[in-house]
Every structure is written in C-alpha cells, then in structure tokens.
C-alpha cells in the first residue's frame, strides 16, 4: 500500500460537500487515515504551491487556498497516488472524465475542489508539511 496527500479545497468547504467528496474517495478504495480541518496561512500556501510561483495564476491560487477552511488528508491504498489522481480527474473540470470528483463537483480550473500529490516522493513531503506521524492512524 501507498499513501498520498489530499486537500479538500475552500470551494468544497464553502459548499458543504466534503462528505460527498469523501464518499467518492472511499468508494475508490482509498482509506482516510488522517484528516484535519484547518485554515491555511498565506505562508503555508506559498510554500505548498512553491513550484508554481512563477506562474501567472500563482497569486490567485494562494488567495483562493487561503480564502476559507480546507480539509487536509492522508489517503492510503494500493497505488494511492495514481488512483487518487484518477479519481480527481483533470485539473480543468471541463476536461475531466465522467464520474471524477472534478467533473462532478468543480466549477473552474481555479476552484477545482481537490488537491492530490503527483508522486510518492511529493506525497511524503506534503504529508510531513501538515501531519505529525502520530496523527496518522492506518
Ligand atoms: P493540484 O492537485 O492542486 O496540484 O492540481 P493539479 O496537479 O491537477 O494541477 P497543477 O499542479 O498543475 O496546478 C496546481 C493548481 O493550480 C491547480 O489545481 C489549480 O487549482 C491551479 N491552476 C492551474 N492552472 C490554473 C490556471 O490556469 N488558472 C488558475 N486560476 N488556477 C490554475
Ligand atoms: Mg499538482
């Protein structure tokens, strides 16, 4: 089994659909082994999305991620990183496949409901940014 890091973004908490998203996650055989609702600070958001800091949408992205509560999660399962990316769907919901979280719930590329790590290496780094080992119970 493998672990990945997930965020239910502010558009999900604002619309009160975190349970509906979690049902899709669990339906895909991913187990939520760590979960916490937080308000991300600007510094946390800037560090987290640091790879995108030269992109034109970086400012907007940081604004959005700090605009409301988020739910940070650790998901566990077979090929969790790839499986979750599949369940999330394409970054732009207009291009996301039927049945994916972003196709079902997201309104725009900026407000696309979920984050999922793009590699096992990044998953470990991202999990460590938001979770103590003792707060993950597999
Ligand atoms: P994450 O799981 O959130 O990392 O999404 P991703 O891996 O599918 O996409 P990527 O890492 O390329 O981009 C990170 C985030 O930046 C996306 O999830 C979007 O929320 C945001 N983003 C990407 N492209 C655009 C864009 O053109 N405009 C805006 N406003 N946001 C964008
Ligand atoms: Mg990404």
TrEMBL record:
Domain named Nucleoside diphosphate kinase-like is located at 1-138
Record keywords, A-Z: ATP-binding, Cytoplasm, Kinase, Magnesium, Metal-binding, Nucleotide metabolism, Nucleotide-binding, Phosphoprotein, Transferase
Q: Which InterPro entries match?
A: NDK-like_dom, NDK-like_dom_sf, Nucleoside_diP_kinase
Its domain of life reads Bacteria
Cite the binding residues for ATP: 9, 57, 85, 91, 102, 112
User: Reaction(s) catalyzed by this protein?
Assistant: a 2'-deoxyribonucleoside 5'-diphosphate + ATP = a 2'-deoxyribonucleoside 5'-triphosphate + ADP; a ribonucleoside 5'-diphosphate + ATP = a ribonucleoside 5'-triphosphate + ADP
Residues folding into a coiled coil are none
The record's annotation in CDD domains points to: NDPk_I
SUPFAM superfamilies in alphabetical order: Nucleoside diphosphate kinase, NDK (SSF54919)
Catalytic site positions = 115 (pros-phosphohistidine intermediate)
According to the UniProt record, what class of enzyme is this? transferase
Subcellular locations according to the entry: Cytoplasm
Q: Name one GO molecular function term.
A: kinase activity
Q: Which cofactor does it need?
A: Mg(2+)
A matching Pfam family: NDK
Enzyme Commission number(s) of this protein: 2.7.4.6
Q: What does this protein do?
A: Major role in the synthesis of nucleoside triphosphates other than ATP. The ATP gamma phosphate is transferred to the NDP beta phosphate via a ping-pong mechanism, using a phosphorylated active-site intermediate.
Q: Which family does it belong to?
A: Belongs to the NDK family.
What is annotated about its quaternary structure and interactions? Homotetramer.
* Family matches, as PANTHER family: NUCLEOSIDE DIPHOSPHATE KINASE, NUCLEOSIDE DIPHOSPHATE KINASE DDB_G0292928-RELATED
Protein name as annotated: Nucleoside diphosphate kinase
The coding gene here is ndk
């Amino acid at each position: 089994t493998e672990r990945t890091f997930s965020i239910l973004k502010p558009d999900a908490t604002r619309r009160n659909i975190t349970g509906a998203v979690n049902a899709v996650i669990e339906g895909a055989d991913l187990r939520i082994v760590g979960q916490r609702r937080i308000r991300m600070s600007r510094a946390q958001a800037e560090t987290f999305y640091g790879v995108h800091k030269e992109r034109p949408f970086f400012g907007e992205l940081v604004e959005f991620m700090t605009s409301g509560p988020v739910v940070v999660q650790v998901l566990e399962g077979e090929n969790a990183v790839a499986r979750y990316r599949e369940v999330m769907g394409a970054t732009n919901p207009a291009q996301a496949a039927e049945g994916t979280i972003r196709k079902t719930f997201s309104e725009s590329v900026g407000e696309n409901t979920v984050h999922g790590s793009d590699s096992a290496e990044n998953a470990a780094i991202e999990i460590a940014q938001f979770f103590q080992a003792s707060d993950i119970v597999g």
